[in-house]
Amino acid sequence: MKKMTIISASAAVFGIVVIGAIWIGTQSGSWKVVHDQGQSLTIPATWHPTDNGQAYLEHGHPEDGLWFLKAFSSQELPSTAKKLPKVGPNIHEWQIKGANHFTYYAVWTGHAQTQAIKIHVPKSQQNLAQAVLGSWQPG
User: Fold this and answer.
1) What is the CA radius of gyration of the chain?
2) Quick one: which of 55, 71, 73, 84 could link to 93 by a disulfide (CB 3.0–4.6 Å)?
3) To 10 degrees, the CA torsion angle through 92, 30, 19, 133?
């Protein structure tokens, strides 16, 4: 009986994850993978490269998108920055909630190098930003 409950719970969780992924996919259209100095992310296909591939911005909304940061210091973050729970070894993430937008910063330190990204989106695209952030593979 206990084993059946665990299997049922696992199937329910898997179903929720699949439905969530489908919902996110339908909300944001198609996706593409981008690479920079050994790191990769999955971003919406509507984000186009600028600044020699150091940023990928939404068509018509140049303040929204992804930036590969050359330097990062958590001391430069505003006091409203909320540190997110640790997601992996050597990775730290912060969320800044603005009046009409969300900004996420993530930094990874390892192998004698540091990599950092910034994601900025309107409030209506918070789930999209979190999906992009979750797809980040540094190093």
Assistant:
1) 17
2) 84
3) 0
Residue 115 domain-assigned (yes or no): yes
Average pLDDT estimate for 32-40:
93
Assess if residue 14 is contained within a domain: no
Q: What is the pLDDT of residues 48-92, one digit of tens each?
A: 999 999 999 998 899 999 999 998 999 999 999 999 998 888 999
How far apart are alpha carbons 109 and 91 in whole angstroms?
7
- Print the domain residue range for 125: 30-135
Residue 48 sits in a domain whose CATH number is: 3.40.1000.10
Distance between CA atoms of 139 and 129, rounded to whole angstroms?
20
